[in-house]
Amino acid sequence: MPPPPALDQVKLWNRFHLRLTAIYAVAAFVLVGAMSWLYYRKSYDTRLEALQEQLLATAVTTAQFLDAETLARLDGPEDAGDPAYQDGVAHLRGILERYPKLTSLYVLLRTETPGKLHFALDWSQGGVEPSAIGDEYDATDLPSMLAGLERPTVESEPVVDEFGASLSGYAPVLDRAGRSIGLVGVDVDAAEIRALRREALTIALVLFGVAALLLTAVTAVVARSIRRPLRRTIEASNAIARGDLGARLDLDRRDEFGLLSAHFNRMAKGLEEREFIRETFGRYVSPEVAATLLADRGAVPLGGEEREVTVLFSDLRGYSTISEKLAPAQVVALLNGYLTAINEVIDAHQGCVIEYLGDGVLAVFGAPNRLDGHPEKAVRCALAMRERLERFNREAEASGVAKAWRDAGLPELEARIGIHTGLVVAGSLGSPSRMKYGVIGDNVNIAARLEALNKGLETSILASGDVVRLLPEELRSAAADHGEHAVKGRARPVHVYSF
Questions:
Q1: N or C: which end of the chain has fewer CB within 10 A?
Q2: Cβ neighbours around 110 below 10 Å, total
Q3: pLDDT (tens digit per residue) in 79-110
């Protein structure tokens, strides 16, 4: 099992305290955001309704003040000097002066053409030139204005006409008989509506910002109360994982973290003897074997169990010559360097080194731990071993280590590898007082025979047909077929392929 990453290597969004805090923070922010949005909508709607009521009230009171019969006399620009016109305009101007938010106030009278109206009175803020008496206004596409001829009406949204965008309220002007002769219209510029939106939005954003700051402070406190004990727990765990069994978790708390601290310290103390055994035992067997036996001594019973595995057997070409021409100390140094490099490759491909036989290496894939796709992993391991050995030779040349080989007339190191898949007996072999983990069976011997067969075929990696048929197409297509060959100790020939 690979070691866990360091705390600073854990991505931020994978950290527990951040995710937990983020969940609460997101939920709180969504809630506050929704409440702020609702406040904004309610605040805007309330302000808009107040403005609409003002428009409606202004239109109604103005319509009630005006005399319909007097207005009916105003027919064209020549009536601009009529005292009734002057009084009417003065009244409109006075209303706009009292309510500066209102932009226009006017009176439109019916004409003989449906939907067509004409101005009788008009006044606007800012010195805008008023429409002349009798100027026609087309209200055909303005249903709210046409409805205002019959009853008080206010628009729900600004409307764009020849005078610009505005929100308007209307009220009918009635004669003494109660008939509508026209309407009073009062406008507010659309900019005022936008100002209402901005005002409501500003207040909502301020409220949201204040709430967000408070939530941020609260979440920071919560995150800190979780982050610190988590960090200390991880640091203590990492120390234990590094072999520092004297490390302890000191959390003086009365909550779950305090309970965790007590159990952690008890566990650390109990691991000291077990870790000592693991460390000592692991020097003589593969780490996978040591871990399996120490974790569950019943997992691999004395006598072994039958298991399908892929066996890899490797040794150095010309080792006898090497051991003959080099001093023993040089041979040991050479073998240790070579075996260290090869062992790293086997470990990287999830293989298990069963034993070293001088220059030979016996490894299995699929025991003691079950391994899916073990034939493929074994073949890829063999290819990587060949590549690693080439690099080992280059490193030896660069460092000067290979000089001793060259002086002795030895070539570069080359390995021969045999691979076979089949059933073996894997387990603890020996006696109850002295055992070793091993694999035995005819299929182990076949891997060794295939390794030796490389010499005659002038190849470096040979695999049996039982291996190749289980490989993915990519590797099968790369295998060279050498047909069937007899191997020592086996009655039937073995179909072999090289890589």
A1: N
A2: 18
A3: 888 888 898 899 999 999 999 889 999 999 99
Amino acid 388 reads R
- pTM tops 0.90, yes or no: no
Output the pLDDT for position 446. Answer: 93
Residue 387, Cβ density class (10 Å: 0-12 exposed, 13-18 middle, ≥19 buried): exposed
Name 435's Cβ contacts closer than 8 Å, sequence gap at least 6.
302, 428, 429
Domain 300-498's class? alpha beta
pLDDT tens string 1-59: 566 666 566 666 666 666 777 777 777 778 888 888 888 888 888 888 988 899 999 99
Contact 467, 383 (CB under 8 A): no
What residues does each domain of the chain span? 1-242, 300-498
Residues with Cβ within 8 Å of residue 434, at least 6 apart in sequence? none
Distance CA 474, CA 271 (A): 46
Q: How far apart are alpha carbons 66 and 83 in whole angstroms?
A: 13
Picking from 240, 323, 188, 191, the residue whose alpha carbon sits closest to that of residue 3 is 240
Instruction: Give the Cα separation of 204 and 207 in Å (integer).
Output: 5
Q: Are 21 and 219 in contact (CB under 8 A)?
A: yes
Q: Rounded to an integer, what distance in angstroms lies between the CA atom of residue 277 and that of residue 264? A: 20
Q: Which of 92, 47, 86, 52 is nearest to 70 (CA)?
A: 86
Strand runs labelled E in 74-146: 104-110, 116-124, 136-138
**DSSP result, 459-470:** -SEEEEHHHHTT
Considering the chain, what is the average pLDDT of its residues? 84
Please, what is the Cα angle at 181 between 180 and 187, to 5 degrees?
90
Which portions of the chain are predicted below pLDDT 50? 298-300
What is the per-residue pLDDT for 299?
Answer: 45
* 355 alpha carbon, distance to own chain's centre: 44
Q: Give the model's pLDDT for residue 295.
A: 59
Contact 107, 121 (CB under 8 A): yes
Contact 437, 303 (CB under 8 A): no
